[in-house]
């Protein structure tokens, strides 16, 4: 082929392309993600990262993904967000509770950039929040824990004493107690989302004291390994399925399903229809997934747990349905009363039967 | 025999496991500092050792080879620090900090494909006869080889520094490198050896976390233990016996506070969480204040040695 014809052909095809797909001339939407842990932590951050990848794949060249992992909650987060906003991000997802105030601060400085903060409760015209109703999944874990424990002692590895974690403790304890009135729950606070050595030590301390079901609200798989070593201890996958630890010790899991939400919100930015809102979806909307209940669980218990899951999913049953008393014995919810979202969002009290105090 | 749901024998036994990484790293750093070199890169060498040990143990399915690889890895990284500070005469503090940053990053890179794998288990090595002694048996004589090694190393390091000629030379280099040089001792060679030993011990400590205590590889697995080890060396005023006390105190209270929480003790969690740090600092300050008013630090600690 002569050079001239080659050039002509190239020009013609370029012209054809630009006519056929005018959208390609546009800059891609720049989407930023900030993670609190490494993006391969096996739990929370990894799941956000994977959802971000699904979103990026869905849009192909139309989005440009920027990620920053292991960003500490605090001033560093503000620096990272500012950097992302300055480098032209159109929407930034900040995926940990502790980024709340920083997100609001940075959003004030960049009114044209959209922010989405996970699990928080503060909004602004350009800050939306999103979270999942993990307490629905915790109810199922509690149900299983109540049935599976032989020592009637359940442990809960808590991260930070924030409403999201306290909801999980209350919900799991409530449903364990419903199935097994003798059950006791110990809570250990670690003040970290991710510290495998500490999580392993906490799980070991619990197991040493005869606890045989360990729930975790921290992100690493270290408690699973500790339980595996100990033998007769049951655990649940947190944020990710952690199926590699099944059928023992992991007997089920709560899986976060962020991808549909990310796709929806990025699409809204593209269409120019993005608005600040508060999204709080659960099992029904598909934001909380329940991992397969393993073969270590007897069939009738498994069926009961699945029935509970389906009832919650269909909206027939709310995990916080009265009568429920607060820890001090005062009435929180009367018979048949259902908790409202406002109280749940700011939950800072234990329900009756839990011992210990919430660090303030 | 339980106290509020806590079995003291099990508690003491898990204390030894939790303290071993700190003990190993702190002992190594103590020897390095005794030669007059302040290596702030303990955290970096630990995590690098942790990942080297983990990869080697996975690939060969042998925990023993894993630990050897961890020691070599930690020592190799420390040689970089030695090169910078002893040959190129850079200041030790930033070089050590850089070593931590480098080690953390390098470990994260190497460990990419080893997430979520389970290493072969290091078997417990119960000592015959001794393990049957009530209370002391289960606490001290039913552990894995590395726990025993860490205890033996305390004695070895102590005896080496106190009784051997080589130990005396090492201390001389740390107290007055110019005089040691004038006497014909090879200051740089001695310091290289001490730095290497420190690196190997830090690597072993790191591998104990990734192969025994957790056992798994994730980024940031050492979570600041290296810094604790550094602090313990200072508070222990550079004595092997006190390093042991410091490490066990810190590890012990870490384990105890988790046990207390799990047992539902009515103590504020914030207080429990900071108790390992508080208690360790307090006790070590008190014991070192009694005998020597002044600091016991090697006189040449952190100083650059010019041969001219």
Structure in words:
In chain A, strand 3 (91-94), helix 4 (100-109) and strand 4 (114-118) form a beta-alpha-beta unit. Chain A has two domains: 27-132, 3-Layer(aba) Sandwich (Rossmann fold), CATH 3.40.50; 134-255 and 291-345, Response regulator (Rossmann fold, 3-Layer(aba) Sandwich). In chain A, helix 2 crosses helix 9, helix 3 (75-86) runs parallel beside helix 4 and helix 5 runs parallel beside helix 6. Chain A starts with a helix and ends in a 15-residue tail after the last helix. Chain A has 360 residues and is of the alpha/beta class. Chain A is built from eleven helices and 14 strands. Helix content of chain A is 40%, strand content 19%. In chain A, the strands form three sheets. Chain A has a six-stranded parallel beta sheet, sandwiched between helices. The radius of gyration of chain A is 23 Å and the shape is globular. Chain B has 308 residues and is mainly α. Chain B has a domain at 11-114 and 134-234. In chain B, 70% of the residues lie in helices and 2% in strands. Chain B has helices spanning 8-34, 42-60, 63-87, 92-111, 136-140, 145-163, 165-175, 177-182, 187-213, 225-235, 240-262, 269-291; strands at residues 124-126, 142-144. A two-stranded antiparallel ribbon of chain B has the order 1-2. Chain B is globular, with a radius of gyration of 20 Å. Chain B starts with 7 loop residues before the first helix and ends in a 17-residue tail after the last helix. Classes of the chains: A alpha/beta (360), B mainly alpha (308). The A-B interface holds A 37-38, 40-42, 70, 155, 161, 186-189, 191, 194-198, 200-202, 204-206, 208-211, 220-222, 225, 229, 244, 355-357, 359 and B 5-7, 10-11, 14, 18, 108, 112, 115-116, 118, 121, 209, 213-216, 218-223, 225, 254-255, 258-259, 261-264, 266, 268-270, 273.
